[in-house]
Amino acid sequence: MPYVRHTMMTFDPSDYDSIMSIAGSTREAIMGWSGLISVRAVRVADDRMIVTGAYIDKAAADANAENARSNFGKMGEFMTAPPVQREGEVIWGYDADDQSKEPGYIRHLVYGFDTSRYDALMSYWDTTTETARGMSGLIRVRLVRCQEPNNRMFQTGVFDSKASADAGSVGMRGVMAGMDDFIINDLTIPGVAQFEKNISVRSGEVVWTCVP
User: The pTM is what?
Assistant: First the structure.
């Protein structure tokens, strides 16, 4: 089963170019990682980015953990806070029929859920495919159940542009409204105004991509 590792890094904006230079210098090495599907970096704030590594399975992710540390660890001197990492298996996914578009904008949602209703939650997601298909510019959706804490979801929508993501926000809010019975209030997750419960939204332009 595909496995995803998300790492959020906080940095001084003045060091952004230096960080991207390091990312560029690691591309050749990353291309040789066995079991890697892709690595993408999204700038979600002036001082923050989320780097996502997708692997064919957890074994491949674990086998490349040292590779990731040795390559991306060079960015450590520019970090202003410890990185925050969330990882887990992909438990649900949607892929648009047209996969020729390049990812340009990614929206991550993080929320806690009632583990006793996990099966019902998965059944609900199966009903959302038509809504996703109706979102022009949506390339794919991935739902990752975090290993720790295991009552937390990391939901990712990949779009070809910010304009497409913004246009699809009405449909996505509809999907999330249907999840109200599954999502729990979790004060450790910073909520945002458009959702009733604690849901963190981190979104931004794709600033770096490596696909072997």
Answer: 0.94
